[in-house]
Amino acid sequence: MTNPNARSAANSLRAQLAPAPSEPTTYAQQIADELIEYLNEWHSLPETWDNDLDARIHRWYADAPKVFPKKPYFSPSSANACPRELYHKAIGSPKDETRKPPYQGRWTRIGTAIGDMIQRDLLFMEKHFEKKTGRPCPFSFERNEDGTPVFEDFAKRNHKIEHAGKTFHLYGTCDGIMRYVTEDGEVLRVGLEIKSKQTSAARTSFYSLKKPDEKHVKQCVAYAEMYGVDLYVILYVNASKKAWEYEEGEFEKSPDIRAFGLEIGREEIDVLLDRFVEIQNSIDDGKPMAVDLNGWTFNGYKTAIAQSLTAAELEAIRDKVSRVKRSNVFDSTKRQYAGALEFIEKVRKGEAV
């Protein structure tokens, strides 16, 4: 099904730009590479119009099911979140409500639009790829009983977990559960997680992006448990482009779309569930865990956290920030830590932030 020359060229390029892998390419990565090949071919064709399919997609969303969380619960998107943040979310602390710069609002909307675009493209490829190219597309979305694709509102669920003496739910939805048809005709269920990059065209180069973000991997581990899949693809789509026309060889070095295949086993799932159990224990016992400043930028409960810190916890944060400032970590990390401490100090002094 795949173009062997394209596959060979892609593997050759990776060998030149990245250190030699310690083991052969995984089967999941082969699927991820093939998804890139099919998307690249589809996006190189003249755009396909299908009003009936677009109308069907809009009708699906107009009548999407309403699924609400069953407490206690954790969301896959918070799999790597600060445990103190999850504590305050669980006990009902007020969430921060602050205005943000307009460019951040556009940033998040563009990220959502990229996910919508890829999902729509895959639906179109399922219907039109073979007519356009003469060969079938091996990727399609799994369907619910009512014919809706298993993604977004049509895949939202509460998945009950009983682990290490605790009971809670994993609540949320995925970007998609695909059906991948192998060359032998076997149908495999493969999860899809779509992420955007927007700061520069280099963010998805083979030099800059050598592996998926750990927080995205953990999110997929949670989805693997929720949807019963062990193969997952994280797809990064870069909204930033270097130019309308690239110099020869530039796109091969710095493509605007990358994919990483994951093979998720029981061990990875249990490690994540152990973390959720630890956090749930802290919630049940009323003993919040320490603040993780690494995720402070997107922490939605900064004010509640600042107000709840003990004197000893605050002193520990001051010491941590001081050590980070003297370390050789990225300047952006130093700024984040310093900014977090500044925010906390202002809140505790009663200053508006």
TrEMBL record:
Residues 1-24 are annotated as: Disordered. Residues 1-14 have a biased composition (Polar residues). This is YqaJ viral recombinase domain-containing protein. It comes from Bacillus subtilis subsp. subtilis.
